[in-house]
Amino acid sequence: MSNDARSALAKELRETVTRHRQLPDADWALDTDTLNRLQALYEKFAPDDPVERKGWLFSSWPDLPERYASNREHYPDRILAERLLLVEKIYTAEGLLG
User: What is the pTM of this model?
Assistant: First the structure.
């Protein structure tokens, strides 16, 4: 599988799992077992590079894989915390050039 195909598959899996975990009570939401299997597939195909793997965190309004309705008030804080964790991880591994 090419890197582009692998990245595209990982992106679709992440977005699907996120969407269904954000609204687990929706009629169309997949069950937890199915989501866990899709998450495992995502982990298998996700890029190793942390920037490629988590770069989506720096979009204008990233979708975090958690229940949105219960966290709406604190969502911007969660986004910032996830972004900081990623930057710290890259800096620790690769220094300023990372």
Answer: 0.76
